[in-house]
Amino acid sequence: MKSRSLITAGIVAASLAGVSGAALAQAKEQFIPVLSYRTGAYAPNGVPWANGYVDYFKYVNAKGGLNGVKILFEECETGYQTDKGVECYERLKGKHGGASLFEPLSTGITFALTDKAFNDKIPIMTTGYGRADSADGGVFKWNFPLLGTYWTAADTLVQYIGQKEGGLAKLKGKKITLAYADHPYGKEPIPYLTEASKMHGFELQLLPITMPGIEQKSVWLQIRQSRPDYVFLWGWGVMNSTALKEAVATGFPREKMYGVWWASAEPDVKDVGEAAKGYNGLTLQHGAEPNAKIIKDVLATVHDKGQGTGPRAEVGSVLYVRGMISAMLATEGIKRAQERFGKGKVVTSEQVRWGLENLALDQKKLDALGFAGVMRPVSTSCADHRGDSWSRIHTWDGSKWNFTSDWLQPDEAVIKPMVKASADRYAAEKKLQRRTPADCQS
Amino acid sequence: MLYRENGQFKGSYRADQQIFPILQDRWMIALLLVVAIAVVPLVASEYMLRAIVVPFLILSLAAIGLNILVGYCGQISLGAGAFMAIGAYAAYNFHIRVDGMPLIASLLLGGFCATAVGILFGIPSLRIRGLYLAVATLAAQFFTDWAFLRIKWFTNNSASGSVSLPDLYVFGLPISTPAQKYLFCLAFAAVFALLAKNLVRAHIGRQWMAMRDMDVAAAVIGIRPVYAKLSAFAVSSFIIGVAGALWGFVYLGSWEPSAFSIDRSFQLLFMIIIGGLGSIMGSFFGAAFIVVLPIALDSLLPDLGGLFGVAVSTATVSHVVLMIYGALIVFFLIVEPHGLARLWSIGKEKLRLWPFPH
Description:
The structure holds 2 protein chains of 2 kinds. Chain A contains 16 helices and 13 strands. Chain A has a 7-stranded mixed β-sheet with strand order 6-5-7-8-9-12-13, sandwiched between helices. A two-stranded parallel ribbon of chain A has the order 1-2. In chain A, strand 12 (about 395) and strand 13 (about 400-405) form a beta hairpin. Helices cover about 45% and strands about 15% of the residues of chain A. By secondary structure, chain A is α/β, with parallel strands linked by helices. By secondary structure, chain B is mainly α. Chain B has a single domain (about 45-355), classed as ABC transporter involved in vitamin B12 uptake, BtuC (Orthogonal Bundle), CATH 1.10.3470. Chain B has 14 helices and 4 strands. A two-stranded antiparallel sheet of chain B has the order 1-4. Chain B has a two-stranded antiparallel ribbon with strand order 2-3. In chain B, helix 3 (about 45-70) runs parallel beside helix 7 and helix 3 crosses helix 12. The longest helix of chain B is centred in the middle third of the chain and has 28 residues, at about 225-250. The two termini of chain B are about 15 Å apart. The mean pLDDT of chain B is about 90. The chains are: A alpha/beta, B mainly alpha. The interface of A and B includes residues 47, 429 and 430 of A.
């Protein structure tokens, strides 16, 4: 009997706490939900991203908020699982006066939330991931695959190795293998690469790796057999380091391996260390940026005050910076919305959408924010929800990442028609109408 | 005192064979239905309906389906997730490829496709049993995982392998608000629970149970093993298939094969083991335990921590949730190996004697 009454007391107390917590929430706060994963197979990559994301909000709050409006954030653990992510979305979307936007950090969850966003009118930001066709703002009113998509990534890589070979025409007859996570994330680049292989005449070999990718011996045996000229790695989490270890075991040169930006951060290569030397990664604008002004500012304002979310050593690492850039794009979207709908006011998710759609981050603004050298200017529009996609190649030297290429950009002439065709297909499937120019003003 | 059937006399076989022979039970169920239909949609918040009640109802339905096979017919199956996937993808293809296909027809056709595949994978059960059969049904799981990942036709040539649906309508009414989704799922869960209950009470259910308890003896008294086992596979996969279709259509809206991975099969198996093997009621209890408990713990723990002035990080919460959850599973299995349904019936027995136990 005693244990039962204890449990009852616990439940009552907990529900009371919930009620008082809700009552204390203040009106002048902009709520940004954080879907993160700090547990499970993808935690090594999910944690630094989440720390960067959250630290940036702490930094903004310490600097006085967004024109006086403090950011309120709440984390929810998705474990990179779609159903858990949907539950988190439902839990957080109505809290604290409504969520400003969501950053699901999983292509699978993005697919599930894209349909919901149309009804709930909450922007879905996918910084460097998500569905490639959602760059078409004419159909995907609520999606923002900012900075780049997997199609632009694949195209940039193809352009880059074409350049290395001495012109795209030289790709004819070459063999490129895509080793990808068998998940919506890993499959995204396939339509583009299939198209490109027809265009440039290279042979494309597709090798899926079952998530989480701890077991991939058979894939590497196939690679050893077919001896491709290049391997593109589209992995996430432990899959990447396993792939590199297998490449070492099968003797595939790491110099011929190119990872997408989610496959080229410190957790992917650290365990392999010296053996991963020569492995190349495409960056999403930034790489590891320990010397950037913003990193020093965050260290001074957040970590030195004992407010840092994670270990101090990881501040400035690739995924940490990516989390921070994602957070910065979110807050800049909100600030942009404030410019139109009232400075120092809490803006609604629909107003935030307008802000994200009209982002105009020029060099001056980036310098002021402390992001000089970390990223290049980005601007979005009603038709283009992705903005400019800039990348570089960085190469692992056994202990750190070094940039080994100049700034690269994808060939829009190829990407644009593909995005439009795919978006039109989606619209037809969903029986949606393209947005009118008048709708762009709203 | 209150819960006692003294004075309730049965005047006919019909009255004696009702699902709920006791008047109080009938009232309770009627009341429960009224609350579920009329009160819950008004009272429950959107989050409650969308993220807790709808998945609970759909997974209960799947658990009922699995319970028929495992609990009633004794054929251990690890392929529940596969049959859910077949139901979902088949329903999707019917819905998207056939113009003007009504939603309910798509869902039921999805169920029928799952039935066909279920019977196919049930054939080995005629020769092998127990754990060996479990491994054979695992083949269904791997086969569907492979098929829906690799065969482009099933996903309507979607680039990423993720499929999504247009808005849903039933008889011209939209299924879009949480309350509509809830009522739609409730209708399916209630109707299928009633059908399943009647099946397991009828001669066919008795055949299943005879097969479960001792198949040689059952064959001796004239029950055809082929018919009994395959009919259990058929009915079970049909219900699981419909549940899978609902999971995709109503709960997720867009999904990839990992929504129906081996984890889902295990989850369903745990539901019926914890809820009670061979009990329709138990399927609901098991689903409630597996679906609601982690979410409840997940949202209560930070508040509980706040009460003692401890900020609990989300990572800690999800670790602690797993620990508590695992401990509770072990606890319940030790206290009552026959599941929550057995606890429920013990409770009812005690209530009958209350307040004057012997």
